[in-house]
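To: structure subgroup
Subject: Chain for Friday's discussion

All,

I'm putting the inputs and outputs inline so they're searchable in the archive.
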Amino acid sequence: MRSSRNRDWLIALFLIVPLALIGYGFLLWPGKIPYTPYSDIVAYHLAAKEVLHRSVQAGQGVPFWRADQVAGGPALTNPNALYTYPLHGLFYVLSPAGAMGWTIWLHLVIGALVYYALGHSLGLGRWPRLLMAVAALFNFKVLMAVYAGWLSVLASITLFPLLFVVIFRVVKSPGSGNALAMAVTGALCLHTGQLQLIYYSGLFLLAYLLVTLGALWRAGRRQEVRQAVGWVVCGGVLAIGMAAYLLLPLAAEAPLISRGLASVEFFRAGHSLGLPHLLTLFSPWALGTPLDGSYRGVELWEDVAYFGLLPLLLACAGAVLGWHRPPARFLVVGFAVSLLLALDTPLLHLPYEFLPGFRLFRLPGRMLFLMAFFGIALAGIGLEELLERLRKRRAGTWRPALAAAGVILVIAGEGTTYAYQHIGMVEQAEVLPVTDYGRFLAEDRTLFRIAPVGRYTVSYAWSAAMKLQLISGYEPFNLRHYQQYFNLLQLGQARREDATVWTDLLQVARWDLLDALNVKYVLAPFPLQLPSDRFEPVGQYHDQPVFVFYKGVERIDVFVYRNKSVLPRAFWAERVVHVVGEDDMRTTLQQNNLRHLAVIRGIGPGDATPGSPNDQVKVVEAADGYLSMETVSGTDRFLVVSEIWHPGWSGTLDGRTLPLHRADLALMGAWIPAGRHRLVLMFRPLYWRVAFGISLCCGAAFLIWVAVHLFRYRRPAPEAQPG
């Protein structure tokens, strides 16, 4: 039995890998990178992975903080970072551009194997399992995710079907081995960061468990129910525990992230799918295509429902002919419910209002990935039913096999055609070019930030590679208090808070807030009329490359201005005002100039004493999440540090713990006693030691459990006694 199963897996591997090389082999071309004008790879992921690669190569390990965009924010616990996700391991050893194509191709292959395992858990034969694997490999929804550069979402798309595999197995055969598989699968899925599809899967699996186990309970098989529930709980707790070092800090940071203020508009994000989108079930281009700009919607990769015409027809056959199979009924209901929840109907408002956590995610149309999953599973059942009917008609063994092979080849051929049409490859230098203004900024060895005017002056994803620190950026999980500061900087007053992903500088109403952010240079694609007492033009660079989201790489002129009034990364406050709450801090900030005072939250020793010209602050060392300074002052003074406040920052003064204060709404600072001192600031995720300790303990428990399970599995059964 085991040798037959191993042979089936080898056959699947020898089929899937060549088809993946034929259909997606261009992803592995050396010196090139996947590219489309709509790619999140170019807009975001290159910068995130550059921060990781640079930190690892410098011997500093996995970074906890990144400073290249929006003036800084958490790195490791950012759901889009995936720094400890095992299938992104190539980014540790290769450059981000060099690892991108291989990582995507690897996920496509693993995703196909996951569906092969799904077919096995459904009790299907070899040909239906192969069909499911190939349909998943060339699923148009997945292909469009690659087209859109969804590096982080692709991880969830690849692995969420494994949750269904292990739950099906645990319910069917409760035991230690399946619970272990559930634990490792759950932990791996929780490492994908983008938890939207994992959350949706959890809702469907909870419904499946309630219905299936409820039926077993009513049938009197209560011992089986207890065993299944026990193993599911053990596997689930262990999975959460092994990912606790990511989940616990992320949960603690939730009140700090602007996504917690998400409105209905943010939830929809302009993607309200209607009945016309159902036409894309039958043709991906039924409503147009982004290849020629004929699609009138916002983003086809979000809206399209197509996962293959042949798989759809086989899914219909599976729903009708395989209805007697218990999993088929769940899959049919899951297909219908996921399709309905993807549409903007009154049904969608129910989970939005009443399900905890549902409104934290954007774009309910991503429920279509669940729909495609249910459809491909039903397609496997449909092929199984059709092959059984062919065999009953004494069609022999070769005719059903030939028919199945023909269907698989047609699906592979269609998917290969779409892959070559949609996914382009360009030289890495085109995506990460060297700019003239970048060379100029690199000559300045001081620590500073830059303020690009508009979204397309400096490509946000190029900032890390250019070793720049921007005050703007593209960050779906940005800090709420920094957005408040940024609104005051641009508008001079607070505005209605809402979640946002793009932080673009379009105007400046408060120059003092810009100065306090350590902005030394302002860059613009056109000449600016800036106050001459504050700024001086220092460069004009023609024909510079820039990545314009939705349009691609273009050429622009870049004008560079130096801020003569810039404040250093750390500076002494002349006066301190204490406030009680965040609203008071914002109101005081609106009414005062930051060059003359610091607004801090909490009770302190009083106003800062006026300093002397001999008081100094010198930054000795700076890295992502680390700042070392030397201070000299004649009296006790308050030091403002232009790093974005987060409760994960800690400070030591001459090796002793120093309390840090939230200052000026989004910055931080500390009271420094008179004399010469060494101040060190370091960032760690919230509850880091506790969370990491939980993960270590759960990881050790998992390994012990595996060892015990293997020992029992391999131990020979006792010989039977005579008589």
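Points worth raising on Friday:
The two ends are 31 Å apart (CA to CA).
The chain has a mean pLDDT of 91.

D.
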